[in-house]
Amino acid sequence: MRLLIVSDAWAPQVNGVVTSLRALVAELEAMGHTVAVLSPQEFRSRPCPTYPEIPLVWDLWRVGAKIEAFAPDSVHLATEGPLGWSARRWLRRRGLAFTSAIHTRFPEYLHGRWPWLPLALGYAVIRRFHAPSSAVMVSSERMRGVFAQWGVSDLALWRKGVDNGLFSPAAAPEGEAVFLYVGRVAPEKNLEAFLDLDLPGRKRVVGDGPQRAELQARYPQVEFLGYRHGEELAEAYRAASVLVFPSRTDTLGLVMYEALACGTPVAAFPVPGPLDVLVEGLTGAMDPDLGEACRRALTLDRHACAAWAQEQSWRYSAQQFLALQRPLVEAPLGGEASVLAD
């Protein structure tokens, strides 16, 4: 099968969406499928205001020609950004089917930054984007319920996984406890809820983003390490006593999978995301008091964390994704049954 994934999020961006999509592409190709990603790398773009690491494509008139040139059997819209909207418009005008996914709770993010923007308005946009989709993929049953309450239809479960070859356990770290955060350093991640805690050990932050300079100046006792990739990232997890996940708005949180695969337990608030990933008292501790969750997580068995993560496969995730795909048309674009003519 020839699969086209349209995504405004792609390398060199570092986030859970990119991690998921790169793992998906690798698994689909290993299964014998031909996959292309239509990303900002194929276009001209400008940095997103307040998030310069996120490119916003502007020469969107080229999207249709690129879709047609690849001649896909199936198209998946991974993001609700400019590329996603442009591809959606082009496909709908030709009566072509597609699937989509909700990776990010943008209405909550926007409402958190600009409280005068009502959540209902943000979800009206989300509903409109995904309404024509034959399957709107979400990462957990809990998030399916959340989005259904906001009127999103045709929701389908697409679970995520972890690279157990890269993220693997080692001997437990010795010495002073290390509490680690991994992710974007941005307001929606609620990082200050972690940085303000009085904990028995050191705090480290792996990642970057628009808040880094401000938070690094305000919390000089915290180690800000910037981005880490590959084996360096795995080593950061292994060297930590606890991964602290302070976000209240993530749809999942792949960093929790990665930490657990390295044997590192997780502390979090009892909210969607952690509630869908963690097994209380086994792989993590969840509490409205994040500091209490951190202290409880210190006592958990690292072997049990790694054993749980071994069962989370990217291959199974890719198979779920594949089962939800729908044929674009009776034949691939450019074939005899093409319906591209206006």
TrEMBL record:
<dbReference type="Pfam" id="PF13439">
    <property type="entry name" value="Glyco_transf_4"/>
</dbReference>
<feature type="domain" description="Glycosyltransferase subfamily 4-like N-terminal">
    <location>
        <begin position="14"/>
        <end position="163"/>
    </location>
</feature>
<dbReference type="Pfam" id="PF13692">
    <property type="entry name" value="Glyco_trans_1_4"/>
</dbReference>
<dbReference type="InterPro" id="IPR050194">
    <property type="entry name" value="Glycosyltransferase_grp1"/>
</dbReference>
<protein>
    <submittedName>
        <fullName>Group 1 glycosyl transferase</fullName>
    </submittedName>
</protein>
<keyword id="KW-0808">Transferase</keyword>
<dbReference type="GO" id="GO:0016757">
    <property type="term" value="F:glycosyltransferase activity"/>
</dbReference>
<dbReference type="InterPro" id="IPR028098">
    <property type="entry name" value="Glyco_trans_4-like_N"/>
</dbReference>
